[in-house]
Amino acid sequence: MTRKELEEHILSLPNAKLTYPFGEDVAVYKVPVGNDEKMFALIPENKTPLQVSLKCDPQLADILREKYVSVMPGYHLNKKHWNTIVLGGDELPWEEVQGLVLHSYNLVVGE
Q1: Strand order in the sheet with 82-86
Q2: Residue 68's CATH number
Q3: What is the pLDDT of residue 76?
Q4: Of 6, 23, 79, 94, which shows the fewest CB atoms inside 10 Å?
């Protein structure tokens, strides 16, 4: 999968938008929640291999980290609630990545 494919999928979710609150090095995807906007996905710019950080249920986060070498605690994020996924290999199928993006979105929207 390419960065463009990943970004298109993220932005296809209702009311999702791209922001750069931490500077130009990190694309942050947010969704309105009440009177605020909450982030549900982050992609570092110009990083190889491609990575994405997603919010995750803590129990599922632990299961994914045990199952996949490419899934690790969220980089610069709350390690209990965020995973960073390295997407450079064949380990995590695209369909599962799509599901984890939706899971992250739903967790944030449901807050």
Answers
A1: 17-19, 26-33, 36-44, 51-55, 82-86, 71-73
A2: 3.90.1150.30
A3: 85
A4: 23
